[in-house]
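Customer ticket, subject: "Can you confirm the structure for Membrane-bound lytic murein transglycosylase C?"

Message body: Hello, I'm evaluating your service for our small team and ran a test protein. I'd like someone to confirm that this is what the system normally returns, since I don't have a reference to compare against.
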Amino acid sequence: MPDASVASLFRSMAQGVHQYLAESLRICSVYLGIAVIVTVSMGFALPGLRDQALQVHKALLTALAPSSMQASADIDTGTDLGVDMSSAIAMAIPTAPASNATGMLGPARVAPPPKKPVANTATGPQAEALRNYISRKYKVAYDATGPLLNTVYKASREKQLDPLLVLAVIAIESRYNPLAESHVGAQGLMQVMTSVHQEKFEAVGKNALDPAANIGVGTTILRDCINRRGSVDGGLACYVGSTGPDDNGYGAKVQAERRRLALASGIALARD
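Agent reply: Thanks for trying us out. I re-ran your input and got the following:
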């Protein structure tokens, strides 16, 4: 009789262990199945997102680029980036949201324009390095960076601004998203306050989401801000809408990205 009790006890223990192992195996199988499903889904989803970004880029390029644009006029020719290139810009839309609103001008304290010209040229290797840096860091379609940089250099030459400063402002404001819009109404690459500067867009017959027009108006505002405040740092505070020197670190962010652009491309920073 005691032997039968022991045998029954061992059978019960064996059944318990078997059930525990079976339940553990079932749970592991469920998690493994979920992992396989997620992996397969990611494999299908990521190429789809990439294709969607390319389609957006092609659509913008088709809509904005005039038929007269010549492939030979791209940035990688190593020529002066300030030449009068096509002002059309197209780019894949990044996922990052727009930053803060800009373009609120403070009290006028007009300073004289700069006495020395601002460098607006880059060598072929420098231009290529700049193009690669922007394309890689901000997920901008590589083919779009040529028209983008030429437009920035042209506008910067006209407004006597350092192109790297303008590119840094665009990076901080919109991360190169031409359709960015903030909750307070700032729009486009340079996050211009459309309600404040609508007449500037009307003067060129464009809206704030037109990339070339946005850069043109944005650089005009930035130049005016620098003239009013008497320095680049003061102008950046003005551009972000600060009525005093405290801009919550905005100017420091722009200047830091400006230095990164210079370092990545090998282009010397212009003296402010």
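A couple of notes from the result: The chain has a mean pLDDT of 76. The domain at 124-265 is CATH 1.10.530.10 (Lysozyme). Feel free to reply with more questions.
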